[in-house]
Amino acid sequence: MSLFDIVTFEENNCMPPEFKACKQIVLAGLLENESPFSTRSIQKIAEVLSAPFVLFQLKPGCLNVDVVLFDAMMAQFEQSNAAMVYANYFETRNGVKQEHPVCTYQQGSLRDDFDFGPAVLIKASAFKRFCETIVDFFDHAGWYSLRLFLSRLAMPLHFAQSVFSIDEQDLRASGQKQFDYVDPRNRMVQIEMEKVATAHLNKIGALVKPPFKTIDFDEAYFNFEATVVIPVLNRERTIADAIHSVLKQQAQFNFNVIVVNNHSSDRTGDIINSFNDERVLHHIPAQTGLGIGGCWNEAVNHQMCGRFAIQLDSDDLYSDEHTLQKIIDKFYAEKCAMVIGSYNMVNFNLEAIPPGIIDHKEWTDNNGPNNALRINGLGAPRAFYTPLIRKIGFPDVSYGEDYAVGLAISRSYKIGRIYEPLYLCRRWENNTDANLSIGKVNAHNHYKDSLRTTEIIERCKLKGIRLQIQY
Length: 471
Hints:
The protein contains 14 helices and 17 strands. The chain is of the alpha/beta class.
């Protein structure tokens, strides 16, 4: 009997001769009209497994295997208590082969797009055990449910060498991929993923539920009701548009704008100073090298910051002159600690581009704080009750700083959502996430996974329990 079965997308002639004796299960044709990652497909695989391990292909294409490294990975896997092992790999894009390292799995690696590479090795006993526990059947989230189950048995093992090789079929840049989860065409997929993630959080003791704390907006005096915060570094082409979009706001309260100039070396500072309006405060931090989060801390702790601090990125604009009023009205109507709006994706010339409106309608008042641990962002524009955000503080980083505070707030407080577009989000060549390297994407993903890990621990503490593992 072979040591492992192979679940592949096709009768694979790329496998080395040593693998030819292994039984191959063709994933794509497993069930007619069935997603290869559905619950029924997972069950069907379990029914025909005969070896102690299963090599489960996750990406379509011709899978190559380095036999020497595969044996080393297998040896490490057998000595661990993990139920699954995955590895770095080589990918070929447009004829160019490059190494593709992957992130190390942690408790907070709940995002359903976690990159395990083109294949994983799973203990057949754990695979079958999952199938014995199935209650809900999913058309798309069967694999997601399986891998979360395996993570509850033990953290998946990351073998940090490139065992596999495959031709990458998704050639989009990182800036294009990041909005897949809010594409309306994927809505039913996301509903299934949310249900699986929610059940997982419940099993590990990290689920939060309403009622959430409400806010007393009269706890402190402020000179301004609202402050728009614009962190900026070298945005001479866009900063004037951003400031103009604030100054044209029509509101029934007084507001200002704090532009935190992070020591720009171009004409950004001169452009800010050219605004002859007492509502525009040009703030240059004493410290150099701050991240976006550090710039936000400078703004919200400034004596001229208003009761509510409202986000505007230096290359974006508000949709119309009523944005601030709508946001503040939402704060008072729902007594929430944070408000998040929706936005339109546009190019540099403010022309609409796909996927269009990003409204995060997957958020619900009851389960939004839990689903927030599965997705990679909470939306924009973001606004905060200033006394609370001063207590929480932003991490001094330039990626994920908003996600960190959003998670922390959602743990205990209500977040209000506005589903109509309030904001024009410019996508252009100077966006920091337009086309990231593999290493940078991994660094970003690892950081957000660490934020989720911390949040899971804190949510368990909130209930007075240590992190639980349940099956």
